[in-house]
Design a protein that fits this description.
Elements (H helix, E strand, L loop, with lengths): L1 H14 L5 H4 L9 E2 L6 E8 L2 H15 L4 E7 L14 E7 L6 E10 L3 E10 H4 L7 H14 L36 H10 L23 E6 L2 E11 L2 E9 L2
Parallel strand pairs: 1-6, 2-3, 2-4, 4-6
Antiparallel strand pairs: 5-6, 5-9, 7-8, 8-9
Helix pairs in contact: 3-5
């Protein structure tokens, strides 16, 4: 029952993102997920486990999101050895790339949740199986996917999930034309406003340890939003004692 209620709440929150652009921009928080912290701005470490083909895009995404008034990000050396598992360190966002195979997804973001709705760790994966293909191997697509997946780890959802709608000028807009015009390669003012809304309150603690996130589709758990293998979708996996993992997937088709 708890999982069913959780799934319903998550689906409802994400469903608001898929409204037409004028309504979708009203709020694009990913549920009520956020990092627990006692002061703003707070700093998140983005652990760099990517190859040189992705380093500049990770650095650019970090600089873009640090423009926010409520959070800063800093890129640090990766803290683990396996790009396949990409297991996150508590309090960090692990960022990885590898040829993960014909999974159907360009990028995924996964957040581990503890004590209700607080993010304790996260990971981002970008799939080189697709980014070596001419369709996706462009600076615009790399910027879009890296910026969007990192944005999810802060508690942001999509501004719009209809890929045929005109671009909104935000990397949190699901798009098949990332360089536009307008370009969907960077955050826009509404993304920064949404972060202010998400982090408008302070917590009485900083996010504690939670169970590490799973790294493959079989372990993502239950589908709670979208369709497997198409567009964007979300999954929930419970790990006991009030901890669970939410995974957001950006499919290649």
């Amino acid at each position: 029952m708890r999982l069913r209620l959780l799934a319903a709440a998550t689906a409802a929150a994400l469903a608001t993102i898929a409204l037409p652009a004028s309504s979708a921009q009203a709020s694009h928080a990913w549920g009520s997920y956020h990092w627990a912290r006692t002061a703003n701005p707070f700093t998140l470490k983005l652990d760099n486990n990517v190859t040189s083909a992705w380093t500049s895009y990770l650095n650019e995404a970090s600089a873009d999101w640090t423009t926010s008034t409520v959070l800063n990000t800093t890129v640090v050396n990766g803290s683990f050895g396996s790009k396949t598992s990409c297991t996150p360190t508590t309090g960090h966002v692990e960022v990885c790339n590898a040829s993960y195979g014909s999974t159907g997804w360009l990028g995924i973001a996964s957040i581990s949740i503890t004590t209700g709705n607080h993010i304790s760790s996260a990971f981002v994966k970008v799939n080189d199986t697709y980014f070596v293909q001419a369709q996706y191997n462009t600076p615009a697509y790399r910027r879009l996917v890296m910026c969007q997946e990192v944005g999810h780890t802060f508690g942001l959802g999509h501004q719009d999930e209809n890929q045929t709608n005109p671009n909104l000028g935000s990397c949190m807009d699901y798009s098949r034309d990332p360089d536009g015009p307008p370009s969907n390669e960077h955050p826009n003012s509404h993304d920064y406003s949404q972060l202010v809304s998400i982090y408008s309150h302070l917590d009485t603690f900083n996010t504690p340890t939670a169970a590490p996130a799973a790294g493959n589709s079989a372990a993502w758990g239950r589908l709670v939003e979208g369709r497997h293998g198409q567009g964007v979708s979300a999954y929930v996996r419970e790990s006991g004692r009030g901890n669970y993992t939410v995974t957001h997937v950006f499919w290649a088709s």
